[in-house]
Amino acid sequence: MRTARHPELDEMTLVLVMAALSDPIRVGLVRVLADGEERGWGQLRAPVAKSTLSHHLRVLRDAGITRTRQEGTRCYVTLRREDLDERFPGLLDVVLTAAHADNIGNRVTLAD
């Protein structure tokens, strides 16, 4: 399997980050990952097909919002909170606060 490419800090653009955050499922994934824990892809539950979930995770990774780590055949994802806060100070907090207030992405959960 190939190693996922993650954009460097200076490659992260506001347009790509905002585009990635324009989908409720992706916002929900960010909300779940906002606790700072690394999660296996199999732990993430969303009302979409597995292939669609994989697409959403790739969009977040390509925008620089998440980091994916592969271990054997399993993939794990974390939120790049420090990088986002350095590149776009306060943006993630505003997005998470608004998403919580408006219940955006609340259908994305963790497996029991």
TrEMBL record:
UniProt keyword terms in alphabetical order: DNA-binding, Transcription, Transcription regulation
Name of the protein in its database record: DNA-binding transcriptional ArsR family regulator
Annotated HTH arsR-type domain residues: 6-99
GO molecular function, one term: DNA-binding transcription factor activity
Entry-linked SUPFAM superfamilies: Winged helix' DNA-binding domain (SSF46785)
Recorded superkingdom: Bacteria
Pfam families cross-referenced by the UniProt entry: HTH_20
